[in-house]
Structures are given as structure tokens and as C-alpha cells.
């Protein structure tokens, strides 16, 4: 029996649009954990429940696009 191919992972493009200055420490840490370093910096993340939860926590600081 042939092995099943894994479904291609969907990706998200996450862009920081607002500063984390003045945000609570846990939100600052979440922005950094997503790989964002400054305003208008974008990173690609695999679409997983963990990443979605992180994005939800800082949704007021980031913009998300599906790739």
C-alpha cells in the first residue's frame, strides 16, 4: 500500500503594522515569537492552530494574508 502524500501546508504572510511599544510584555513576546522585528516587516508562517492563536492575540498589531 503506497504511503499517503501529506497535504501541502498553507502559509500565512504576517506583517507588523503597529508598534508593540506600550503593549503588554506577553504581546511583545508574541510579536517577536512570530518573527517580526519592526513595523512593515513581513514573515511567512505555516498555517497551524498555534500560529493562528498567536496572531489572534496580537491581531491589533498585525495584518495577515493567506498565500
Q: What would you note in describing this structure?
A:
The structure is a single chain. By secondary structure, the chain is an alpha+beta fold. The protein has a single domain, classed as Ribosomal protein L30/L7 (Ribosomal Protein L30, Chain: A), CATH 3.30.1390. The chain has two helices and three strands, in the order E-H-E-H-E. It has helices at 25-33, 49-57; strands spanning 11-16, 42-46, 62-66. It has a three-stranded antiparallel beta sheet with strand order 2-1-3, with no helix packed on it. The longest helix is centred in the middle third of the chain and has 9 residues, at 25-33. The radius of gyration is 14 Å and the shape is elongated.
Number of strand elements: 3
The CATH architecture assignment turns out to be 2-Layer Sandwich
What is the top-level CATH class?
Answer: Alpha Beta
The overall pLDDT average reads: 92
Termini separation comes to 33 Å
Number of helices: 2
The gyration radius over C-alpha positions equals: 14 Å
Shape: elongated
Largest sheet: 3 strands, antiparallel
Q: What is the chain-wise order of helices and strands?
A: EHEHE
Class by SSE composition:
alpha+beta
Q: What portion of residues belong to β-strands?
A: 15-25%
Residue ranges: pLDDT <50 for 5 or more in a row? Answer: none
CATH superfamily descriptor: Ribosomal protein L30/L7
As for the CATH topology, it is Ribosomal Protein L30, Chain: A
Helix content: 25-40%
Strand order of the largest sheet: 2-1-3
| Count of distinct structural domains | 1
